[in-house]
Input
Amino acid sequence: MRQIILDTETTGLEWKKGNRVVEIGAVELIERRPSGHNFHKYLRPDCEFEPGAQEVTGLTLEFLADKPAFEEIVEEFLDYVRGAEVIIHNASFDVGFLDSELARLGAQYGRFTDYCTVVDTLAMARERYPGQRNSLDALCKRLGVDNTHRHLHGGLLDAQILADVYIALTSGQEEIGFGSFDEGGGHAAPVVHAFDASNVGLRARVTPTAGELEAHAKRLEKLRAKAGGPCLWDLIEAPPASANAEAAAVA
Output
């Protein structure tokens, strides 16, 4: 699976008022792991910033004066996203601006979604956390993603943070050991052992002790907090009360 985590910065809040894209940042994930093949461009907007927009990004027309226009990087950008699942926070904002940029270049470029599919993490977060704040900063705090280095909005920086948020928002198996990291910080490939059922004999049922049950309950509470709801073991029938009583007696 090829996924692109994407963010744009603009000269203002509405493309309909003539505002333009000034930065595109994107992080590529292959099978949910960063590939290192990122995309990052600053763009010359050929228009003024709206009041307050420069304070958000820290970008200036002077800095952007020698940067390429969107038309100069459009082919490279479309080749980069082509066929991918593109993940954006508040996708209607970024897609609206990208569609506007493509429209400026002619109808032959079509729309952004002609080249890729789009997933909106804001919609995902609102479904999972209804009635709560679901800005990127709020999700970082809720999901334990470090964003202390985010002093200004930036296309590539926000895409990198959103990649961590998206993985946390859509994961859960990593917490219970299905995903692991090697010492170098990368994902270690799982080791699969062959299972020979012919060598397995019948064994007596093992009853957990009271201490083991208590530790298990605490672990489940952590998983529920991480997942924001029930975890896998909640779907499994709880052990009979007699088993718990027997475990307490053994302890």
Remarks:
- The radius of gyration is 24 Å.
- Residues 173-205, 236-251 have pLDDT under 50 and may be disordered.
- Residues 6 and 26 are 4 Å apart (CA to CA).
